[in-house]
Design goal:
Length: 478
Amino acid sequence: MFTESIKNELRRIVGEANASFSKEDLLCYSYDATNKVSMPDGVVFASTPEEISGIMKTANAAGFGVIPRGAGTGASGGSVPVEGGLVLSLERMKKIIEIDAENLLAVVEPGVVTWEFQQEVEARGLFYPPDPTSLKFSTIGGNIAECAGGPRAVKYGVTRDYVMGLEVVLPTGEIINTGVRTVKGVVGYDLTRLIVGSEGTLGIVTKATLKLLPLPETTKTMLAVFPDVKDAARAVSEIIKARIIPSTLELMDGVSIKCVEEFAKAGLPADAGGLLLIEVDGAVETTEKEAVIIEGICKDSRAISVQAASEKNEVKNLWKARRSASAALFRARPHKINEDVVVPRSAVVELIAGVEEIAERKNLLIACFGHAGDGNIHVNVMYDRSDPREAKAAPEAVEDVFRLALGLKGTISGEHGIGTAKAKYLGMELGPAAIDLMMRIKNVFDPRGVLNPGKIFLQADMSPASGARPAQGAPVRH
C-alpha cells in the first residue's frame, strides 16, 4: 500500500479528482482482455506530459512501479499491474491535435480511440490503415505500445509503419521527442521504432505523429465458403502467388464459423469447413479485375460459393461476424487460450494441418481464425478449467503450437505482444544473447525498473542459463 505522503504527492501532481485509491476504482484498472486480475495500489488520470514526468520522478524516488494503460484491450497482460503499484491511465489524453492533409500526417494524443481517429481522417478523404479487432475501443497509445496489426496489415502493414515521430516521457521523467514530420529522416538511432512495440516498458507515449494515405477510391468485399479449412488456406497461398495483395484476407475455420453464426446471426453457413473474408481496394477498374481473378482462384481451390457483398449493411454484418469471433468461441467451451502465431504465408496450410493434429492428439477443441493473408493465425485452445485433464492439456497444446510455428520459420506473436502471457516462452524464439541485450536496453532506459515491471522479462527468463540479467533496483512496494 502507498503511504499517505505518496498519495498526497500524486494528488498534488494530477489534482485531487484525478487520483484514486478506492477499491472500487482499483478493481476497474486491475485487468485487461486476458481477464487476469491483479490489484494496483492506486490509479491516476494524467492530462499532460508534465504530469506524467512528475509521476515518474516520484516513482523513481519512492521506488514503486507505474503501469501505463490505455483502454485495457490488450491480449497479453501488458497493462495488468502484476506487482501492484500505480496504474497511469492515459484515457483522458484524447485530443486529435492536427490533421495535415497537405503533408499526409496527423498528430494525436495517446487516448484517441482508433476508430474515432479513422472516421475523422476519412471524412477528409484520408486513410489510416491499422485496424486491430478492438479498434472501436482500443487507443492509439495502446496500439503503439503493442505495435497493433489487424486485417488490413496484409496490404498496408502494421502500426509501426505509420508512426513518424513520438513525444515520450522516459521512465526517469525526462521528456523527449523522436522521429520527424518529414518523409525521410536518418539522424541518430531510430528511437521511434524502438519505442513502438516495447509494451510500455521503455517510455510513455504522450503524443504521436502518424502517417496518412489517400483514401482508396473503392472497396469490394467478398465471402468465399469452403468444405474444409485447409482448402481455404490453400486459396490464400494461390491468391498471393497470383501477385494480388488484397487489403484484407481473413480466414475462419468450421468451429469459429459455427460459434460466430450462433452468436452474431450474420448469415454465415454454419456447416462450412472454412471461409475467407476478402477485400480488395483501389481504383474501380483494378478492384473489379482483381475480384474476378480472386473468385476464379477460390473456385479452383474447391470453394462451394464465392459471393460479393452488394450493400453497406451486408459488408457491415460480415465484419461484425469476423470481429466477434473471439468472444463467440466461449459458446464452445468456457475457457480459452488465444495465441497469435505467424508463419510465412506459404506455410499457412501446414500450420492449420499441424494445429488439427495437436487438437486430435491432445483431445481438445482448437479453433483457428485470423489474418491468413499475412500468415497471422489466432489459435484458440478451448477448454474447461474444472476438467483436470483439459486444464493440464491446454497449456501443453499452446507450447506445441508455438513449436509448430517456430518449426515453420514463424514467430510466437504477431500482434498481441509478450506481456505476462508469453513471457515464459520468450526463450523458445530468442537466444540468450538477444534476451540479454534487450534486458540491458531496458536497464538503460529504466535503471530502477519502475516502468511496467513484470512484463516481457520474468524470473523464468532471467535464469543463469538464459544469459539475461534482471533490472537493477527492483521496485519496492509501499
